[in-house]
Structures are given as C-alpha cells and as structure tokens.
TrEMBL record:
Gene designation: rnj
Residues binding substrate: H361, T362, S363, G364, H365
Assigned EC number: 3.1.-.-
Protein name in UniProt: Ribonuclease J
Places the protein is found: Cytoplasm
Signal peptide (from-to): none
GO cellular component terms given for this protein: cytoplasm
Chief site of localization: cytoplasm
Residue span, Metallo-beta-lactamase domain: 17-213
Cofactor: Zn(2+)
Length: 614
C-alpha cells in the first residue's frame, strides 16, 4: 500500500470558532479538536453551530481518536454531538478531559467515560501508521497542549490556541525547549492559531493584568460585578486574587462557572482561600464594598445577563447606584456594538463600566510577532493558517513571507479543503473536498435546520406571515364558506380592513380559476393561492410575507350518505309488528320480579304516614 498523507480542514477557517481538523495517514485518521461556534444574528433561533457530521458518517470507521488542545467550547463543544453516535476515543490533558466530560454530560446523559483518555505533554501514543505527541502552550486555560502527528513523510504540528508569555505561571507556560526539539526533527506542515494575527502591539503579561485588576478592585467603592468567561481560568484566578487582596468575597452566578471552578479547584488548578466564596443567601448580609459578583456566560461575554441586571429582570442581581461592572474579557469585533448598548444600560441604572480590553492589550492568542517567532523557530516546509477569519489567514501569510517563506508554500484554505501530499514530488496539492458544511443545532435537533428553514425564518422576521383559510366543495366546484384571513407580524389588521377584504376576493378568484381546469390538483391550487396573494400583497404594501394557504374540503355526497345511514339505523330501532300464528300461547302468571324489579309495599307507605300522625 502506498503511503497516503492528507490534511483535512473540517472547520475553524474563515470563521471564529468551530475548530476541527484531521490528518489522515494511510487508513488512520487523527481528528484535532472538535469545537463549536455561537451563531450570529442571521441564524434565527439557532443555538450553536458545529462541523459537518457527514464527515463521521463517511470516515468514522477510520478515525482512531479525537485529540484536544484545551477546554474551551471552540475546541470541545462538538464532542457531545459526535459521541452520541460514534464511540471514538478522546485524548486530552487532565483538566481538558474534565471540562469535556461536563460538556458531554450536559447534552448527553449517557456519557461513556471509557472513551476519555488523560495524557500530558510527555505522552507519546503509537498507532499503526503514525504516532502522536504533545507540547505545553500558553493560553487562558491551564494544561493547554499543542499536537504533533509523526507521519512517515514528516511531522505535522497543530498549535491550537496559543501565545508566548515568559512570565506565565508553570501550568500556563509554553515549553520552548520542546519546540526546539520538534524543530530539530523537521516540520513538514504547521497549522498555527491566526485569530490575533493583526495585533501589532505585544500582549500585556498576565502579571501586569493581575496587578491592574487588583488596582481596579482597590479603587471601587461599591459592589463589583465581573463579566467574564467561565473557562478563562487564568482570569478567574486573577479575580480571586484581587478579591482576597482587597478583603472582598466572591459570589459565583450561573451553573457553568460553578461547575468549572469547582472542577478546577478539585484538580488543583485554582487557588481559593477559605471563606472567599459565598452562597447566594449570604449576599444580603455582606456589605456592598466587600462584594464581588462573578457573572459568566457560555459565549464568554455575558452581556444578556448584564442587560437583565440593568433592567431589573435578573433572577438574583439588580444593578444600582455605586455598582462597578468590570468586563474582564476582550470582546470580539462582532459584539462591540452590543457591549456599547450594554454599557449604556448600566450607566442608566446608576452603575459604571470598566473594560479591560480598552485599557490593556490582552489576549489569549498569538500576536503577529509571536507567530513570526514560531515560524522562524519551527521552519515548516508549508504553512496552513487556521483558527481565524479570512483576513487573519492572509495576515499570517504576509507575516510568513516577511520571515522568508515562499508565498506558494502558504495555503489559504476553506472548510472542506483537503491537502494531499505527493511523495514523489515532495509537495502538497489540493485533493477532493471533504464534508465541510455547518451543522446547526436548534434545541435537541442536530442538522434538521437547513438553509430553506433559515430563509423562512428570515422572511418571517422581516415581513411576517399571512394565513388564508377556506373550505371548498370540489365536486360542486364552489366555495362552501367565506374565506378567512389573518396575519402576524405583517400589518395591523384593525387598521387595514380594506386590504384584508380585497385579499379575500383574490383568494376567490384563484380558487375559481382552478375549478375551471379539467383536472383538479391540490398542489396547484395552493401554489396559485400563494402566488396570487403574494403578488397582491407586495403590490399593496411592498412586503413579502410568508403566505400560508389552508384549504379544507367538504364532500356533500358523503355527508348525505352518512345521514341516510343514520336514518335507516333509527328506523331499525322502532318496534316491529308481531306475526300471528295458530299455535296456542301458554299462559303464565305475571312475574313482578322480572328484570330485577323489586315489589313495592304500598301499605308500608300508608303506615309510615299513620305513624307520623301519631
């Protein structure tokens, strides 16, 4: 069998989140991360988006494992949906595996713990065609790892989310010596994190960020409400440190942060002094100047919760005069407008807002200079930028060219691309595409919402729905009852009586036109009603609502047949005449007790009246 090497891009390029990549070595496939992304405003009603599950339907029997870099949703969020149908081993660091179990348990109660395997940076796993090893990286969650696939053709390095910070604590520090060792063995392909490639300023060190947060806490006079990401344990630790240094206690709100914090505490990744955390029932007894409320959200930016607090709709907290809202995470570009709206609500409620990202350049992802350092250190033969929007992938390409790489050796990909290695020529080429579409999760449904449903939802949100109900007699070719029309989200009915009445006549005309056809067809009738109403309503209002025709049929012949059957049954119940015969009847004494009747003692009633008189 000839050696086969493929790099498959399943998600995480030209977008933020949903990271999933795969490397195929002969008949074995190694999946790198399995994340999700949260929908933008155009995906109406969608909860989360995950990579294309069609990939596992086609190649699931070849997948030897899913290898995780860290415990954020963009790397582990798709696991619950994959493990519903496929028993694939999962490999990750101790904390990453525990966070993955929490995620899987939330969506899939029948969690198979035997699929989860804990590894560390010193682990190397041998498979039939390749081996897999790991190295420490710096990110906002401890125990983050990069992954190396050791194929016969060369090493393929996937960084996951990373950055360089020499001052980071040991659990967060990149292993530069290990990177030098990997470089010494030659790197065939590098898949680096691109999500912060445009940054020209260096990231502030985590020591500087910790000092800044402590100063903010020290200068606050009232309550502090911290908005952050539950799985950003580095930031959570800094909040705990600042609260302890300023004599405050911390209340955790939300199940996500409580589970994650307690799991990290149990594993020794968080240091929490005794008495620092308080319960909700203790909140009223702790003075405002001694209170910190840590509010987190699954999207990492709990802006909806802050808005509820500002509008007095939150189940526990209401922002009042003197409160400080500290946004401890750097918001993505997509939600900057929402951050501004939320800040305005907080100020209206009497609070103030401080955003960490406005005062310090901090991120859990590599800057342009970090990426150039990594490229210069590993010297890969080809570069495949991943984890980022298209402009960020292009930014990585420019950075690589500055370090001396040939532009032809940098591949800008899209989801579904497959790079195959030609052993004879010693270079990659674009092969046949693999499944790379989005799988949308709406409630418990996985992939049952497609573009057609989303387009209908978009139209409903823009122009509403118009419903027409009519009953017809197909045999007599007539409308039995006057059509009924109503709408939702289209026009105010009480102010548009003429429009509604005119639409009834349009319905009648469309139905009558169908009656005149020799061959009656229900589909054509509804389509004609939909088309006629759509054109009429657009002409009158310049809007295109979803037109929903409801046509019912009454069959008069069937009705008469049923009525006759009922009359015949009623006639059959009448007493029929008894035929006389010449046989002499046998006389019998009348039986007063027939059919369970009991004798009535008439004298007893009289006696009782007599007794009353007595």
């Amino acid at each position: 069998m000839s050696d086969k090497l493929k790099i498959m891009v399943l998600g995480g390029v030209r977008e933020q989140g949903k990271n999933m990549f795969a490397v195929q070595v002969n008949d074995e496939i190694f999946v790198l991360d399995a994340g999700l992304k949260y929908p933008d405003s155009s995906l109406f009603g969608i909860d989360v988006v995950i990579p294309d599950m069609e990939f596992f339907k086609q190649y699931g029997d070849q997948v030897v494992g899913i290898f995780l870099t860290h415990g954020h949703a963009d790397s582990i969020g798709a696991l619950p949906y994959i493990l519903r149908d496929w028993d694939i081993p999962v490999f990750g660091s101790k904390l990453t595996i525990e966070l993955a179990k929490i995620d899987v348990q939330r969506e899939n109660k029948r969690r198979n713990n035997q699929l989860f395997n804990v590894i560390d940076a010193d682990t190397e796993i041998d498979f039939k065609n390749a081996s897999v090893s790991f190295f420490h990286t710096t990110h906002s969650v401890p125990d983050s790892l990069g992954i190396v696939i050791h194929a016969p053709q060369g090493q393929i390095v996937y960084t996951g989310d990373f950055k360089f910070d020499p001052s980071a604590r040991p659990a967060y520090r990149t292993d530069m010596a290990r990177l030098a060792e990997i470089a010494g063995n030659g790197v065939l392909a590098l898949l680096p994190d691109s999500s912060n490639a445009e940054a020209v300023l260096p990231n502030a060190s985590e020591n500087e960020v910790g000092t800044y947060i402590t100063n903010v806490f020290r200068n606050a006079k009232g309550r502090i409400i911290v908005a952050g990401k539950a799985s950003n344990l580095n930031r959570v630790q800094q909040v705990f440190n600042a609260a302890a240094a300023t004599g405050r206690r911390v209340l955790l709100t939300g199940r996500d942060v409580a589970k994650i914090v307690h799991t990290a505490m149990k594993l020794g990744y968080l240091e929490v002094p005794d008495g620092l955390l308080m319960k909700a029932k203790e909140l009223k007894d702790v003075p405002d100047e001694k209170t910190v409320i840590l509010e987190t959200g699954r999207m990492g930016e709990p802006l909806q919760s802050l808005q509820k607090m500002a509008n007095n709709r939150h189940r526990m907290i209401t922002i009042h005069e003197g409160d400080l809202v500290f946004i401890a995470t750097t918001p993505s570009h997509a939600v900057e407008t929402t951050v501004a709206i939320t800040s305005d609500m907080v100020y209206r409620a009497g609070g103030t807002v401080i955003e960490l990202g406005r005062n310090m350049h901090t991120s859990g992802h590599a800057t342009g200079r970090d990426l150039q350092t990594l490229i210069d250190l590993l010297k890969p033969r080809i570069l495949v930028p991943v984890i980022g929007d298209y402009r960020l992938l292009e930014a990585v390409k420019d950075l690589a060219v500055e370090t001396g790489m040939d532009p032809d050796d940098v591949y800008i990909t899209q989801n579904g691309d497959c790079l195959e290695y030609d052993t004879k020529r010693g270079q990659f080429f674009r092969g046949d595409a693999v499944p790379g579409e989005d799988t949308m999760i709406d409630g418990s449904g996985v992939g049952d919402v497609g573009n057609i449903v989303l387009r209908d939802r978009e139209v409903l949100s823009d122009d509403g729905i118009f419903i027409a109900v009519v009953t017809i007699d197909r045999k007599k070719k007539k409308i039995v009852s006057e059509p009924q029309v109503t709408s939702r989200g289209f026009v105010y009915i009480n102010a548009n009586h003429k429009l509604m009445n005119d639409s009834i006549q349009v319905i009648k005309d469309a139905i009558q036109a169908n009656f005149e056809h020799k061959k009656f067809d229900w589909t054509e009738l509804k389509q004609d009603m939909r088309s006629s109403l759509g054109k009429f309503l657009y002409k009158q209002t310049n809007r295109r609502p979803v037109v929903l025709p409801v046509v019912m049929e009454v069959n008069q012949n069937r009705h008469r047949a049923m009525q006759k059957k009922a009359e015949d049954a009623a006639e059959g119940n009448k007493e029929k005449p008894v035929k006389k015969n010449n046989r002499k009847k046998q006389t019998r004494p009348a039986n007063k007790y027939a059919k369970g009747k009991k004798p009535v003692n008439k004298n007893k009633k009289k006696d009782s009246k007599a007794d009353d008189k007595r």
